[in-house]
Structures are given as structure tokens and as C-alpha cells.
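User: Here's a chain of 233 residues. Predict its fold as C-alpha cells.
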Amino acid sequence: MAFRFRQFLVEDKKSTMRVGTDAMLLGAWAQPPQTGRILDIGTGCGVLALMMAQHSSSFVDAIDQDFPSVAEARGNFEQSPWSNRLTAIHSSLHDFATLNAGDYDFIITNPPYFANSLKSPSNRKNVTRHDVTLSLEALAEDVQVILSRHGRLAIILPPEPAGKFIILCEETGLHLVNRMNVFPKPDAPCSRILMEFSRNKKTQTSETELTILDPSGKYSAAYLTLTSAFHKF
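Assistant: Prediction complete.
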């Protein structure tokens, strides 16, 4: 069954990265340039690329090293209203970076981060959700190669790898300019951090918070407002 968004549909049965709350949060929170070139790293079914296409008039490229995911993303792109601005590419990030230095104004990614957790019996899932083939170190290094002079990066990570990634980015010349701490419900610890990095350093990082569920267990007003351009609840 396809996921129906306000302006597009997403099939995700064949992809290693399916539609989920992390992607919804990141895609709704991110602020891509209205024109230019956007890159979605590890696109899976292509949902983040589609959200960026709805958000802007930019051209959006989406890469993934898993070919079935790329094929499914291509199908989702072709049936969207922005098929002329969306391209799915089968490639590793490092190979792509060597051919596209400084080419992208905005990068978005929901990367692998389960570095030390129990792995799945599925090798495809391991490659996607663990840092089997893409470490945070490699991600930070390749992103700074691909970004244009005034480019920005939007990413979502759990708190521990987020702290590590902030340090790695600073070492490569990318600075944290915006962050949103996400809590699954009231009184629960922070589970995700949305981050935006830029080559241009700000005097102070803008920091906000969001709680997904309200005390009754329903989506909070803040979450509904954030995602209203994509979901109809």
C-alpha cells in the first residue's frame, strides 16, 4: 500500500529506507533553497527528495548504493508532479563526491547510525542502518567536498552520534547553525536531533524543541503544524 502525502505518493516495499517518522521530521523541518541543486544522500524510496521537490523549485538528485531502492525511488519520482526535477542515481557517496565537488547548494540525509547495535539478518538493512559502508567520519568529509561555497546540510541523528557528528563537521569547516531537539513524548528523553550545518559560522546556534506526542498519546499541535504541508491528519 502506498503512502499518500498531500501532493505525492510513495511506494516503499522494495527500499531499505522506508517512510518513517525520522524522514517526516527532517523533510518538514529542512529549509532548502528555492532554486539551485539539492542532493539526498541514501534516498531509499525517495521520500526526502520528494519533500525537497515540493518545498522548492530546485533540481533534486538522490543517490543510494542499493539498486532496488534506486529503482523504487525512480518509480516514485516518475509519478510525482516534479518528475522533471528529480533524478535517482545508483552510487556510493564517496564515488559521487569525487565527481561532484562543490556542485550542491543543499544536502539532506537520514544516515545510518546504529554503529554498535545488534545487526539484522538482512545484509541490505545492515548496509543501510549501520555504518557498514558509510561512517559518520566519511559522511562529514564527503559532504564538505560536495557542498557549494554557501551550501548547507540538513541531517537527523540520535543524541550520541549527533554530538560526534557536530565535532566531525567542525573539523571539516562545517558549522552547526540550527538544531531542533526532538522528544517522543512529554517527560521522555530527547531521541533525535535535527541539525543544519553551514560553511558560514553564526555567533550562536539557533535551538528549538519539539515533542511528537501530547500527554494523551496523540500527535502534538507542534508536530501537526510542522508536518502540515505533507500530511493531512
